[in-house]
Amino acid sequence: MFNIKFFNKMLDRCFSKNDPTVLAKQSVSLGVITSVFLVIIKLIAWYMTDSISLQASMTDSLLDALVSFLVYHALKYSDVKFDDDHNFGHEKVEGVVSIFQCLIIFYSGVMILHESYDAWNDPKPIQNTMVGIVIMLISTVAVYQLIYFQKYVARKTNSVLVKGDSLHYLSDFCMNLAVIGSLILSNFFAHVDIIFGSVVGIYVLYSAFQVLKNALVDLMDEALPKEIRNKIIKEINSISEVKKIKVLRTRSAGMKKHIEAIIGVDNDMTLAQADIITKNVEKKLSKLFAKVDILIKAEPKGK
Questions:
Q1: Of 13-17, 143-147, 276-280, 291-295, where does the model show the most confidence?
Q2: How many C-beta atoms lie closer than 10 Å to residue 38's C-beta?
Q3: CB within 8 A of 98, min separation 6: which ones?
Q4: pTM surpassing 0.90?
Q5: Which of the listed ranges 1-5, 178-182, 250-254, 271-275 does the model predict with the highest average pLDDT?
Q6: Distances (CA, A) of 196 to 82, 134, 189, 244
Q7: Which domains occur in the chain, in start order?
Q8: 106: Cβ–Cβ under 8 A, 6 or more apart, which residues?
Q9: What would the mean pLDDT of 109-122 be, rounded to a whole number?
Q10: Cβ of 85: how many Cβ atoms within 10 Å?
């Protein structure tokens, strides 16, 4: 019986000590390797079956390999420290590449729908159905293992690129199931293969929209989700010397969270005492996230 908690513990033992950026790179590297493997076996299956839905699946895997390759290099660049030209670092490159991810995934969906439309009036019989089914079952297992690991990494790193990568592999997983179904049913209805190919194309377009939405959260400096802001507020208020939170600004850029706050302290507090309090606040908040940039300023509460 599949035990999710057991596998999560195993992953924690193997990867919990890894730096978030290293963990994200490992996830994307595994994606590239898996995609290349899937392209090869699906190309063989398509050649042997002449299936439209399998062709769509193979095309999507080919684009997955390209996207994962780009994502890997974007992660390397986003981890470069700030310089004179980029004073706040390079993390937003993740959002930029995610937009490119979106365009590639969208193009893939449109091409799949176009192939399905062209094939509708002249459906071709599928050959070697069992070979196609076996290869797609192998592909499904490989993609499931990858998605499971990527979901784990996404929780640990909160990387928009890893999330985007995971989303289009999820579409690949659903596509594999659809292709298996079409191969089984195509013996009874010739157009089933084309219909399933079209459904896959529509789902790929939906995945492109999800990637775009996640990328815009970063690029538009959207505030962190309410539940995370509430945790931040709770940690700040847990320090008794903090009398009020005057300003709280949050955003994310790639895997890094950015927090700025102005806290109110007693009017008669010295500068040295206020500095100790701000450092205590920063220390508490830094424990909430793997990668975070914190700026805390203290002011008299009555100001």
A1: 276-280
A2: 28
A3: 160, 161, 164, 211, 212, 214, 215, 218
A4: no
A5: 271-275
A6: 48, 18, 12, 58
A7: 4-219 (1.20.1510.10), 226-300 (3.30.70.1350)
A8: 204, 205, 208
A9: 71
A10: 6
Query: How far, in Å, CA of 234 to CA of 228, rounded?
Result: 10
What is d(CA 245, CA 264) in angstroms, rounded to the nearest whole number? Answer: 6
Q: Are 250 and 228 in contact (CB under 8 A)?
A: yes
Euclidean distance between CA atoms 47 and 149, whole angstroms: 31
Instruction: State which amino acid sits at residue 207.
Output: S
C-alpha angle 289-150-179 in degrees, rounded to nearest 5: 155
For tokens 């592909």, the residue is: 139
Question: Which bin fits 128, alpha (ψ -120 to 50), beta or left (φ > 0)?
Answer: left
Please enumerate, as own/partner, the contacts of 74-82 that have beta carbons within 8 Å and a separation of 24 or more. Answer: 74/161, 75/21, 75/24, 75/25, 75/28, 75/159, 75/161, 76/25, 78/21, 78/161, 78/254, 78/255, 79/21
Give the whole-angstrom CA distance, residue 42 versus residue 162: 24
Element (H, E) at 248: strand 244-253
